[in-house]
UniProtKB/TrEMBL annotation:
Organism (species): Usitatibacter rugosus
Annotated keywords: Isomerase, RNA-binding
Statement: the UniProt record of this protein carries the keyword Transmembrane: no
Record's protein name: Ribosomal large subunit pseudouridine synthase D
GO BP terms, alphabetized: enzyme-directed rRNA pseudouridine synthesis
Alphabetical list of InterPro entries matching this protein: PsdUridine_synth_cat_dom_sf, PsdUridine_synth_RsuA/RluA, RluA_PseudoU_synthase, S4_RNA-bd
Enzyme class: isomerase
Pfam families: PseudoU_synth_2, S4
Domain of life of the organism encoding this protein: Bacteria
One MF term in the entry's GO annotations: RNA binding
Domain Pseudouridine synthase RsuA/RluA-like: 77-236
Sequence similarity: Belongs to the pseudouridine synthase RluA family.
Enzyme Commission designation: 5.4.99.23
Amino acid sequence: MPSPPPTVAAVVREQTGLSWSRARKLCTDGRVTLDGERCLDPAARVPAGGAVVVDLQAPKHHAGPLSREAILFYDRDVVVIDKPAGMLSVPDVPGNKDTLGVHARTLLRRMGGGDTALGVVHRLDKDTSGPMMFARTATAQRALAAQFRDHEVDRVYHAIAHGAVAAERIETDLLPDRGDGLRGSFGHYKRASGDPPAVARRAITTLAPLTPLKGATLVECRLETGRQHQIRIHLSELGHPLVGERVYIRDYSGVKIESPRPMLHAQTLGFVHPRTGKHVLFQREAPADFQEMLERLQTK
């Protein structure tokens, strides 16, 4: 399999001899262009023949809550946004406007993309990064919700999990309370007695290890269902909680790798466009903090 194209940060580092962190900062500060366009994403890939230019004197980019580059696609039916880690998808309490939905709507209006309410069809956890979509019409929202309900949406995540994770397909019934206040799989925390209760929801995750790391593994997690905290719970119940996990780690007795957030990134989002009927696919490389953790844990 051919190697992927280098990232912008990697080319900047090669050109300048600077550290990874400094090379990435030059990108996020707006001092790097790719083929003549300012590139704020250090993880963006440089195509063959692409021209990366560093200008140390360029004016510093002052980012708002959401940059224009975060809008991966929009039309009158749907918008796809590269959600940053640390931002809520939707309000956690009534009136909270510091959310991806609110910031995306504001940015679309400023970009001349119209001002329509954004309908929620799925969510990413606050600390999870990667592509997320909203519907812009009621018709699109119904069509997209049906695709999620029928498990027709492509959702692939990358996770850094403790220990040596093996390939496995996990199929459990998730409960809102496994018996100690945490979400969990029926029969895992307490021995199962009878059938799962009515509140249980089927959850299916397929794991494929990608890269062995020091004390951890980079894992591809493919979702067939999309229950709340599904990947985090399944990995934890296997004995491989996410690096940076704060909740589903109380049963883990191994050496914990510290991280400011759970190392989980939504790599791929694919669906059938609700109006055109065409299959569309969006992929984003993991952000700088995820990449830095990978470099920190490299075995070579």
